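> example.struct
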């Protein structure tokens, strides 16, 4: 098996994970903000480090509807970009930011064995460092037009 096929498989896998994660949020619609509030109150404010708890209390909770919308948009964009192989490196960076935030909210770190977010972070990092979107992805066409772009 060629390495680029494996990278494409990882890219599509992570895209599907984000798709599965965002689907219930899309189904919840505007009530996702209420669900996010519950998660932040019962998980982040109980388990996260003091500086992250302060961030949640002072910035996220007062604007929870905006953050809920941003999460849905970001997870949807990452899922679509990774599955289609479009701007894979940018999608990988966004995925890394999302899973880092999820880990911090849970009070976990990348090396915590009970966190699959750490594995998702590493997969996203590999996608950022490689040209994973150029195999079975739109990035192959984009790279023909602009071969030196950092996005693909």
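> example.seq
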């Amino acid at each position: 098996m060629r390495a680029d096929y494996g990278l494409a498989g990882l890219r599509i896998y992570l895209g599907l994970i984000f798709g599965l994660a965002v689907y219930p949020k899309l189904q919840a619609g505007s009530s996702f903000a209420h669900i996010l509030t519950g998660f932040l109150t019962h998980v982040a404010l109980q388990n996260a480090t003091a500086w992250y708890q302060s961030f949640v209390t002072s910035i996220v909770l007062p604007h929870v509807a905006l953050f809920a919308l941003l999460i849905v948009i970001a997870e949807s964009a990452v899922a679509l970009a990774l599955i289609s192989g479009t701007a894979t490196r940018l999608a990988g960076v966004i995925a890394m930011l999302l899973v880092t935030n999820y880990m911090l909210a849970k009070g976990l770190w990348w090396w915590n064995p009970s966190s699959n977010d750490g594995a998702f972070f590493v997969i996203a990092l590999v996608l950022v460092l490689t040209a994973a979107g150029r195999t079975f992805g739109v990035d192959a066409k984009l790279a023909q037009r602009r071969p030196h772009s950092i996005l693909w």
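> remarks
The CA atoms of residues 33 and 69 lie 8 Å apart.
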